[in-house]
Structures are given as structure tokens and as C-alpha cells.
Inverse folding.
């Protein structure tokens, strides 16, 4: 029977004692979430990479600053990532869109369905990136990372009610923006298969 | 349930978050009779689905593989780094601060003496480097300083990260204190006599 995976707390304790394998295990467990959070917040792979690096370097240096009473280690890492992302965004406006890192095309029966689905995802991505940062982080944590309000509040360092109200407002803004985009876009072209054969 | 009550639950219901079972039931009854709230609910559910599709599109995204190797190297480097490479005396500053008070008391007594004993450059002495007791920026370059020799408990060495022979922990140790014009200790060095 295999042993259960060690908790974040156990790995952190071992890491602080100098155990490189524990650090590696912790990194492998948490890097993707931190990276995706930074990517979804910034829209830039370069920023996401820098932020991930800075977060784990900071964890090496300041692991003793983590207080389990204030939230999970994941929330602590997201909190550090958030500070790093906001710092990067203050320095530079993201120019690259996430189009470059969008999912690879999946083979479907109907290429138009696939195209429409990808256009929809791009539109939602653009709408999320256009939100003010304090609304965007609520959407990214609660909707894209499926954190509950308490975890998101720990990561953002604010009250649970603040997360709720920001998420509510953010979704209103998203719905309005997506609605406006769809009204401006032409409807899907109707393809006549007979004409394609000519 | 009225429309206002429903509005407070709308986002949680659309996101399929835990909601009190009774409230959920009443909310679902409400949208059966209220077309406006039913439309709002449908719109919020559609938004939730779109956000989940966006999350799924980046499900496989993760940091580049090379980053793990770089961080592991940094971890090893951090563990291997000798303590002296870090400005360790800054970490010892809080401990040293309380210790400075002790030094100041000893210095005040010595100042009453007609000729304070200056640190001799005697060949039978071995001294550490001067260890700052204040941040470097607080030391004025043109400041007149005075060196005063004091005796301190040997345990004071520990406060500055220096090794101590526990068998002699109860004994005193000699130290030279660098005093500024204002009488505040700027730096200290420990002296061993042969």
C-alpha cells in the first residue's frame, strides 16, 4: 500500500530543514497554479514565468513568514504571485495577448464549431484581461481557479465579503462587455455545401 | 422569495456554489414565476460555462521545464552559502541593540575615569573586525570617534554570531567599542589576549 502524499505543511517543514526533494515536490505540486494565475492576470507568458520564479525564490528565503493560521500554503503562494503580477503590470502594460498560448486546435467534425468555440474563448479571455485588476483577480481566483471565497480572501488579503462583492461586480462587467462584443460581431456565416463543390 | 432576495443568491447559484438547501429551493421556485430573474439566471449560467471553458483551455499550461532546474540550483546554492556571505550582523541587530545598552552603561562608567584605556595594538592581542552596531548609513564619514575598551559577559559573543566556548561562558571578554560624538556605540570588536 502506498503512503499518502505528504501535506504542503510537511513538505514546507522539510524544505525549511534543507530538504531539496521536499522543495521539488512542493514546486511540482504548486507551480502550475501559480503560473496559470500569473498568466491569466497578466496575459503574458514572460510575466508568468518571472512571477513563478520570484514566488518560489521568495518561498525559499521567507518560508518562515508563512502563517498557517492565515490560510493554506496555496493561498499564501497566490498572494505572493498577486503582488508580483501587480508589480510587473505597473512596470509594463501587457502587449501580448493570450492568443499565443491558447489551447492547441482540437480536431472536430465541424471546423466552424471549433472556430466558434475558440473565438468565444478568446473573447472571454480578452474581457477578463480588460477588467480592472481588483475585479480580475476575483474572477481568476474564484471562477478560473475555483477557489472558495475564504481561500480567495486569504490570497487577496481582504475580507470574504469583499471577494463576493468584487466577483459580483466583475461578472456584471464581463457580461456587459461580452454582450457588446457579440452585438458588434457578424453572425456565423451560413455555408452552402453545394457552393463549396463548385 | 422576491427578486431582491434572488439577486443576492444569483451568482452563487449560477456558479453552483454551496447554498442553503431551503434557499436554493425557494430560488428555483422564484425563477419559475419570474421571467426577468430566469433570464438573469440563464445569463449568469452561460457566463459560468464560458469562464470554465476559458479555464479548461489553459488547463495544461505550466511553467517551463527549465525553471524547476534553475530553482533547484538556487535552493542548493542557498543551502551551501556560508553564513558570512549574508550580512548576518543585520539579523543580529535586534539582539545587539539590547546589548548596546549594556555597553553604554559600561562606557559611561569608564568615561568618568581620567584616562580611558585605549585599545592597544599589542602584539599579544588578537581582535575581530569591527562589527557595526548601527546601519552603515548612520555612520557619518567625518565623525570623530573614540575607542573605549570594556569588559562584557562572554555570552555577548553569541549575539554577534561568534563562537563561544561553553566551558568559559561565565567569564568576561574584552571588547573595543567605537563611540561617536553623541556617545552612542557605532561598532564593536572583541579582543583576545594571550
Amino acid at each position: 500500500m502506498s503512503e499518502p502524499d505528504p501535506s504542503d505543511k510537511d513538505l514546507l517543514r522539510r524544505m525549511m530543514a534543507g530538504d531539496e526533494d521536499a522543495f521539488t515536490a512542493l514546486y511540482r505540486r504548486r507551480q502550475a497554479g501559480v503560473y496559470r494565475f500569473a498568466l491569466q492576470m497578466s496575459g503574458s507568458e514572460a510575466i508568468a514565468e518571472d512571477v513563478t520564479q520570484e514566488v518560489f525564490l521568495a518561498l525559499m528565503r521567507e518560508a518562515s513568514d508563512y502563517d498557517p493560521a492565515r490560510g493554506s500554503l496555496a493561498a499564501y503562494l497566490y498572494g505572493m504571485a498577486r503582488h508580483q503580477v501587480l508589480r510587473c503590470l505597473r512596470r509594463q502594460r501587457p502587449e501580448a495577448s493570450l492568443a499565443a498560448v491558447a489551447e492547441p486546435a482540437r480536431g472536430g467534425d465541424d471546423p466552424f464549431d471549433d472556430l466558434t468555440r475558440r473565438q468565444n474563448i478568446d473573447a472571454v479571455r480578452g474581457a477578463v484581461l480588460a477588467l480592472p485588476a481588483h475585479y480580475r483577480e476575483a474572477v481568476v481566483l474564484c471562477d478560473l481557479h475555483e477557489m472558495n471565497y475564504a481561500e480567495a480572501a486569504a490570497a487577496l488579503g481582504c475580507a470574504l465579503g469583499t471577494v463576493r462583492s468584487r466577483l459580483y461586480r466583475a461578472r456584471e462587467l464581463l457580461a456587459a462587455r461580452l454582450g457588446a462584443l457579440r452585438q458588434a460581431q457578424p453572425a456565423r456565416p451560413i455555408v452552402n455545401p453545394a457552393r463549396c463543390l463548385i | 422569495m422576491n427578486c431582491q432576495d434572488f439577486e443576492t443568491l444569483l451568482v452563487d447559484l449560477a456558479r453552483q456554489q454551496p447554498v442553503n438547501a431551503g434557499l436554493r429551493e425557494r430560488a428555483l421556485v422564484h425563477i419559475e414565476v419570474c421571467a426577468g430573474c430566469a433570464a438573469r439566471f440563464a445569463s449568469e449560467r452561460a457566463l459560468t460555462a464560458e469562464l470554465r471553458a476559458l479555464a479548461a483551455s489553459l488547463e495544461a499550461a505550466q511553467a517551463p521545464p527549465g525553471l524547476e532546474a534553475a530553482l533547484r540550483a538556487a535552493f542548493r546554492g542557498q543551502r551551501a552559502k556560508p553564513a558570512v556571505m549574508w550580512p548576518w550582523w543585520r539579523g543580529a541587530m535586534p539582539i545587539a541593540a539590547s546589548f548596546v545598552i549594556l555597553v553604554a552603561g559600561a562606557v559611561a562608567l569608564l568615561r568618568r575615569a581620567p584616562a580611558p584605556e585605549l585599545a592597544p595594538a599589542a602584539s599579544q592581542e588578537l581582535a575581530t573586525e569591527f562589527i557595526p552596531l548601527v546601519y552603515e548609513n548612520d555612520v557619518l564619514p567625518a565623525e570623530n570617534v573614540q575607542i573605549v575598551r570594556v569588559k562584557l559577559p562572554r555570552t555577548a559573543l553569541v549575539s554577534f554570531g561568534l563562537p563561544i566556548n561553553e566551558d568559559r561562558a561565565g567569564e568576561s571578554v574584552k571588547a573595543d567599542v567605537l563611540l561617536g560624538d553623541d556617545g552612542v556605540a557605532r561598532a564593536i570588536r572583541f579582543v583576545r589576549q594571550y
Remarks:
- Chain B has a mean pLDDT of 74.
